[in-house]
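pasting input
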Amino acid sequence: MSAGGFWHQAREIARKDLLVEGRAGEALYITIPFGAVALMLIPLAIGTDRPLLARVGPGMFLAVSLLFGMLVAFRQTAADTPPQQELLTLLGTDPAAKFVGRTATSTLLLVVFEIVLVPVTILLYNPGRIPGWPWLIPVLVMLASGLALVGTLAGSVTAGLRTRNTLTPLLVAPLSMPLLLASAQVVEALRQEESILLWITLLATMNLAIAVIGVLTARPLEESGR
Amino acid sequence: MKQGSYRALSVTAIVALAVGFTFATTVPPERVQGEFAKIMFVHVPSAWLAFLAFGVTMVGGAIWLVTKTPIWDRVAAASAEVGVFYTALALLTGMIWGYPVWGTFWDWSDARMMSTAIMFFVYVGYLALRRSIPDPETRARRSAILGIVAFIQVPLVYFSVTLFRTLHQGPTVVRPDAPIDPEFLRALMVNLAAFTLVYAAFMTWRTRLARLEDELEETEAIADFELAGSGITAPSVEEAREDV
């Protein structure tokens, strides 16, 4: 990989991460089926009351997306080993480009994760037609990108730590709660046929704020990882 | 800061707390909530001080990233610890108040309660991160960044009562249309001042303790460090005789 421009580097990092993920299949073949199983477990735990399941279905989808999406965002294949880190540094890779590339990969995988879970949720919970449902498409993309941003940032903060596997979820889960809240409020507002502008703005603001912080702090985080 | 100053600040904070308690107990009961409303003299200052503490954590972390001066990392860490304490106190007093007034300790539809609990866990994560990193510079750098990211929660908690349909009452003290009773407000402000002094006392003691911990770590690191030639020892006559 040559040390080209910022976007070229980000694209190459994303390509490399997708290639590694394609070979390992950590997100696609392990986490996604795991999420689908979780959606099946919930009705067994709360009972098979169909109107209740139809009501809680979208919420369960969002909760599972968040909890299992975390596993996608800080999957093991997204963590660089020390020799990989050294190589990227020697190639002159911009840490911010690495952050952007890695976030892009996670976003893509999370969108795939959501695409698989949506029909599973519809089949298992039968939530009915939500008025203005096409609005859920940008909302789900923003949820995926927000989660990917938080996950990538938290993954960088905990990189190389012995407690990484337990500490990262503790950091990601509460930090991504605003994303879950805003997404859930969009579903609720659409059902009530109310304005969703406030929630879309909240989602976009969260995404933007974390993206800016992630890009600005990428270099200091990279230095602390050496 | 000298040891005497730490003690003077602590004594002042204790006296201020006593004054605050006197104000809180002598103010007449609230018209609707009765004596239960007086828990607000602990709840509201705790919540405000938690916001301040997390703001100091963010600022301390940001200054550390620029200056790399260890004191700012200590300030950020100390403030996060005190902030977590105040958040826990705000949550606990909120729940105690909620039971007689709302009929439940915890209400899922209350956005302020939920977002405060989330903020609590974000900063518990911050403290857990600090404990996980042994190297002081890496610890300071990573926690400074997390301290900045975590602060996103604070405006969200503050505006949660206006953003969401919630059980929690909206802003009361700063609301011009429904002014708070002057006597109640006075007691609240006295308690806010007392809690601020307690925050300052906690901060000074905790920052001092962090400095001592850093000094101890440094001393231990130097003691463990092998100097060049430290493997060469003075010849021992006894050992030489045994060899023969």
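fyi The CA atoms of residues 185 and 206 of chain A lie 15 Å apart.
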